[in-house]
Structure formats: structure tokens, C-alpha cells
Design goal:
Blueprint lengths: L10 H18 L14 E5 L6 H13 L9 H7 L6 E4 L8 H11 L9 E5 L7 H12 L5 E7 L7 H4 L3 E4 L5 H12 L3 H10 L4 H9 L1 H16 L3 H37 L13 H41 L32 H9 L3 H19 L4 H22 L1
Parallel strand pairs: 1-4, 1-5, 2-3, 3-4
Length: 418
């Protein structure tokens, strides 16, 4: 067993990090190490789409650097890295919308210390794309003149999410989207999910490993996703759009609450316990400031969780209209061998792509037959616009209403011409 075993669909990236860790071990032992693209360097950037396993790969690499056995996955070093408690591991994993400059300053200060028990001090920043420019400039100074035995590992969706000056000082490793089969196999192996459910969860999550796990193990998450798709398919009027936007907000809120509620309770209990406050006992006046700080952090995390929940809903809606468009373009066939929309051009090669929402194939075919591809593209543009507006802090209700009004207009057009 090793720290690389639970990673899926990223063999090329794993080989890069494995080779770097092995070269660092040879160098520490006094061996000859040639300067190659796979040799060790002091700063790394792991990029890839959400759910591709960026942070998992970063911590596997950290284990390989901090473990006395090169990342065995079983020793105390590897267990401490997994628990984020290793003395030579520093982690910045914000639950806020942005990473604050104070957090990065503290991390930069900690990076200056020599390792206490391992060969390296490893610093991991998850969601490095959440740094504003002035915050990134604080990090830039640390990357320009790093201590000899400090290794930085940044994680972000893409290189473009970071400043060019940051990108020029890191070695980038790009992850690909894992295949549906890889993610399904992981769910079966790691979580004991039934193969059929694992495949459906992997497909509907579009190979997002975290969401696939949630859909495979949580009945309520699957029910909320199904309701979201039904709502989008059934919107017919402006009134439907307004009511639908309110319901989508409720669904996103319930999803976010399900993710954060249990964690919030555990954090509060742990904080009270560490402060010596017994269960049921009133918090002394002198300690209320610390509890208030915790509650404010949890509120900020709830804001981010709600935004993430809305983005998941919009991603699911995009997958629905993507399926509809594929049927209309003849890239997905009906069970009888003919598409539900515009057939492929005569003489064109037969293509039958996989539906993301195979479980509601009949509704997808019905929606494709009742509309045209231009209306479907307009709907997809409206969903993409809603994502941009919400990311830019436009009121979610207004963004969702505008999106659903466009979907309603498309439905009315289909009924007028049908």
C-alpha cells in the first residue's frame, strides 16, 4: 500500500510527483541527481477541474516527501499528513470566499522555519485562486526567495487563475478529468457502493469525485438533484420562473446546510471542550469572544457553501441541456435508433455519445423533440450567465429568475411552433 493507491485517473501526474519525491530521496542520500523535468523543485502548482483530486494529489506528494519510507501510507508520518497534523506540514484551506492577506502572511512566516523531523517543510495552499492580487504578492516574495528545505504546493483550477508572476515561479502539473469508469471503480472499491449506483453517480457528477461520493451515498442529495432537473424541464411562464428561482435557492440552501450543519456542531463542541466549558453550561463572558469568532467563521463558510451549492445546481442544469442538444444534433440516438431531434447529416459517421442524465432519458428525448437547438443553446447561455453573475455577487434570486425566464421563453416558443 502507498499514498498513491487511492488516487484515480491521474497516472501521468502521479509519475511526475513520484519521480520528484524519489529524486529528493536520492539527493538526500548523496546520490547523483540529474536536472530533469521530473526532478525536485521548491514550488509546485497542481491544476485541474473541480473534483479531479487536486488536493488529494498534493497531500499524497506531501506524504511522499515527509514519510521516512517515501509515502508508505501506513507509518505515523503518513497518518499525521492525512490528519493534517504533521509538525512539518502547514496547510491553508480556507472556508471563506477569499483567502485573506493575514492568513498568507502567517503561512509565509511559518515557512521560514527549518523542518523539525523530516527532510522538508511542506506548505499546501488549497484554492490558491481565491487570493486577491495584493495577497498573491505577499506569497510571491516567499516563492522568490524560499528557504532551502521548504516546498510549496499550490492548488487551483487553472494556471490562468493565478498571477503571471506566480505562474513563472512554480512547476505546473495539470490533472485531467477522470473517466466515469475510473470514478465508479473508486466508489466501489473505497466506499462499497453497488456498481450500478456507482456508475450512475460517476456519470451524473461528471466525474467530480467528491460529488460522485455524495450522490452515491446520500439519498437526499440524489432527490435534490432530480428535483432541480424536473423544475427546469417544467418551467413554462414567468410565474413558474419566479417560483422556481425561490425553490432552487431553497434546494441550494438545504444542500449547503446538510454539508455544514454537522461540521459546525462538531467544531462548536470541540471549541467548548478545549475552553473547559461542560455540555449545557453557559459560556462565561470572558470566553464569548472566541465563540463569536468561531460563529463568524462558520457564517462565512455557510456563504461559500451556498454559493458552491448554487454552482452545483447550475452545473447540473448545463448537463441537462447539453444532453438535449446532443440529441437534437443527432449525436445521441433514441432506443429505436433515431434521434429525438435533428438527424445527423447523410453519410456522416454514426456517433452515439453518453448521456449524463441517462436515468431520465425519456424526458431528455421529449424535451429535445419539443424544441430546436437554437433555443437549447440560448438556455445554456442563460445558465452560464447566471453562474457568472452569482460569482460576481449579483443577488442569486435575480440571477436565477433571469435564467429561468429565458428557459420559460424557450418552452413557450416550442409550444407555439409545435
Amino acid at each position: 500500500m502507498s499514498v498513491w493507491d487511492d488516487l484515480t485517473g491521474q497516472s501521468a501526474a502521479i509519475e511526475v510527483f513520484r519521480a520528484a519525491a524519489e529524486s529528493s530521496t536520492r539527493k538526500a542520500a548523496g546520490g547523483v541527481v540529474h536536472d530533469t523535468p521530473d526532478s525536485m523543485t521548491h514550488s509546485w502548482l497542481v491544476t485541474g477541474p473541480p473534483g479531479s483530486g487536486r488536493s488529494n494529489l498534493a497531500y499524497a506528494f506531501a506524504s511522499a516527501l515527509l514519510c521516512r519510507n517515501g509515502g508508505c501510507g501506513e507509518c505515523s508520518d503518513c497518518r499525521q499528513v492525512a490528519a493534517r497534523s504533521h509538525p512539518d506540514l502547514a496547510v491553508l484551506a480556507t472556508e471563506r470566499v477569499i483567502i485573506s492577506i493575514e492568513e498568507v502572511r502567517r503561512l509565509v512566516s511559518a515557512s521560514q522555519f527549518s523542518p523539525s523531523v523530516a527532510r522538508y517543510r511542506v506548505v499546501v495552499i488549497e484554492d490558491a485562486d481565491r487570493m486577491q492580487e495584493r495577497t498573491s504578492n505577499v506569497l510571491l516574495k516567499a516563492l522568490e526567495e524560499p528557504p532551502e528545505r521548504t516546498v510549496w504546493i499550490l492548488c487551483a483550477p487553472s494556471e490562468a487563475d493565478l498571477l503571471p508572476t506566480i505562474r513563472s515561479r512554480v512547476r505546473s502539473v495539470r490533472l485531467r478529468v477522470p473517466s466515469t469508469q475510473d470514478v465508479a471503480a473508486l466508489l466501489v472499491k473505497r466506499d462499497g457502493v453497488e456498481p450500478e449506483l456507482a456508475e450512475r453517480a460517476a456519470r451524473e457528477s461528471q466525474s467530480h469525485i467528491g460529488m460522485a461520493h455524495r450522490l452515491a451515498t446520500n439519498d437526499e442529495a440524489r432527490a435534490r438533484r432530480a428535483e432541480t432537473l424536473d423544475l427546469a424541464l417544467d418551467v413554462r411562464s414567468v410565474g413558474d420562473a419566479v417560483r422556481g428561482a425561490a425553490r432552487l435557492l431553497e434546494i441550494a440552501g438545504a444542500d449547503a446546510q446538510a454539508i455544514t450543519e454537522e461540521r459546525d456542531a462538531q467544531e462548536r463542541a470541540a471549541a467548548l471542550r478545549s475552553l473547559g466549558v461542560e455540555p449545557g453550561q453557559a459560556v462565561p463572558q470572558a470566553l464569548r469572544g472566541q465563540i463569536k469568532t468561531l460563529e463568524e467563521d462558520q457564517k462565512r463558510r455557510a456563504t461559500r457553501s451556498l454559493r458552491d451549492g448554487l454552482d452545483r445546481i447550475l452545473t447540473d442544469l448545463l448537463s441537462l441541456f447539453r444532453d438535449i442538444l446532443l440529441v437534437q444534433l443527432g449525436a445521441v440516438s433514441d432506443t429505436g435508433g433515431t434521434s429525438g431531434g435533428t438527424p445527423a447529416a447523410p453519410g456522416a459517421p454514426v456517433v452515439d455519445l453518453e448521456l449524463v442524465n441517462e436515468a431520465i432519458r425519456s424526458r431528455v428525448l421529449e424535451a429535445a423533440a419539443g424544441n430546436d437547438s437554437s433555443s437549447t443553446l440560448a438556455a445554456m447561455d442563460a445558465i452560464a450567465a447566471a453562474r457568472r453573475r452569482i460569482a460576481a455577487n449579483v443577488a442569486p434570486a435575480l440571477s436565477l429568475e433571469a435564467m429561468l425566464v429565458t428557459l420559460a421563453d424557450s418552452s413557450r416558443h416550442a409550444h407555439r411552433t409545435g
